[in-house]
């Protein structure tokens, strides 16, 4: 295994419930705390394991909600206390990643940070490492750098990043400037992007010097930036940390880092991208989870759950079993069945995106007990 | 309400698990012990309530498995002990109905018995009563009489009875001879039968003098007949009853009364039929249960279960809920979801008949605990 990168620190924002994966994913057991691939580890742990060879021992920070502190520490027994950055409530990605940057830059002014979601699935780790190493070299030159996934199909489920001019950077032969960001396309557009090869999936990975990232936030969102510095100043004092969060955090503007940092930086020719050639999925819904677990065989029934007792007669799709009940499927195609102790979901791959609506409806109808 | 018929005794064979209704219907909670119509009563109780005005108080016998004795007595608190006829194991309908006939004829040599399954659904009770009263008048003339249901659609799910010559019987203006029995037809044949109007659904209802029925069994199945007489002789002696059943019952030939009695009687011009104009269903599978509970609205989602917590987004079909779990259905059409504490079934109306295969597979794979 290659050695870790000296001046690199990994940041894992572990927020977001994953409403489209309800009732598997819950407020108290969000997506990143589940093993969705049968790896035997949670997505969070897989993310950690993927990053540790790059960042080195003890050089990963996790930004998560206070409610998940115990679960996160349980999953990551090696994490230093000062690297568990707790939010009192979700304030979107600029606040989460920006706070980590502000805290880490006080410890190491030259530090390069890389932010990677806690709940994505990545296969072929050495290709991931290769992309990150190139991104770090690019960041070292002062760019904010993202990793865009080379599409494996014309997906309409992801946003895209368009590459423009190539950059010449030692140790980053694939580095290019980002021309623009594109929202989720329709199928025809996605097909054109797929054929073009200069469009990459936006996987929300950002690698940058912490000071460069903070400068960009300062320019676009000065108030937010000031709040982050104030919080960071209090951070390493255990007594001051909690009260500072309580006071400042709820006032921070909610804005995705894509809008506060990435798009403005791209407009200035300041955002670079490294294409990622590894398998990547954000496991956005059960259709995606089914695909991920069916090993590419279309008529398969994927089964998730250690004690699953499934009897299938000509069924395909996915069963997630969190109970010991016998689950019998007869003649249902592309079905999604999620069986948990207090809630059951039945839908199809086609309608998997609409599961978020169920969560909204459960809130509205006073059945929040199962969220 | 009209008065009961003096010399009439109703017999309710309450056997059969209803495998196509698994996991709702179980070995220890067979179909007849469920409320499948939202009436607030089990099918057995509904059957009893329908027959009591015809037979009179205390004049209904139930033939059931020993395992169901407590449940049956609990459902039918008024039933005299001597009218609960317990089988040590299922030996098919000739044995069940024949034993009831043999027991009752010893009490009342002239008795007319009518046998009606415990797990059918009948609506419009006064039309049912009218059919039974005609059948009793016909039986009084020495015929074995069945009630055939006037089809409401060209069903391929039922066997048919073809009427032949009309009979002239006082009090039974619709009585006719049975020409023949026909097995479940294909759709084209069913359509022809439906147009023809002389084909009726075979609902397995038989009304006859007990001695006439026994004479027919004696002619076709003399050994079986001898066993029934021996059992009946021991019946009203509480001490002798159990041992006699233990010894004789397991040796009795398993044969449906359709083959031992109805078809031979029809061949001799000895079987009559009264058309039934009431709504009838044998609730043979979940597709039928869905139809029964959707009030004829095709795109409805029928929901069975007192404490059902169902959230449906553009779903149709049926949900049976025996747990307090939230059940969420998204975009599934003609779906069948049966949610019980230890087993879950997901199928579609189209495949509902195949549920019996699940039960067989569960037996074969050692998961009989959920049967």
Automatic annotation (TrEMBL), chains A, B:
Q: Where is the MannoseP isomerase/GMP-like beta-helix domain?
A: 316-362
Protein name, entry field: Mannose-1-phosphate guanylyltransferase
Which UniProt keywords are listed? Nucleotidyltransferase, Transferase
Family annotation (SUPFAM superfamilies): Guanosine diphospho-D-mannose pyrophosphorylase/mannose-6-phosphate isomerase linker domain, Nucleotide-diphospho-sugar transferases
Note the InterPro entries from the entry: GMPP_N, ManC/GMP-like_b-helix, Mannose-6P_isomerase_type2, NTP_transferase_dom, Nucleotide-diphossugar_trans
Gene Ontology molecular function: nucleotidyltransferase activity
Coiled-coil regions, chain positions? none
In terms of CDD domains, this protein maps to: GDP-M1P_Guanylyltransferase (cd02509)
Domain Nucleotidyl transferase, by residue range, is 10-295
Question: Would the keyword Protease turn up in this protein's UniProt record?
Answer: no
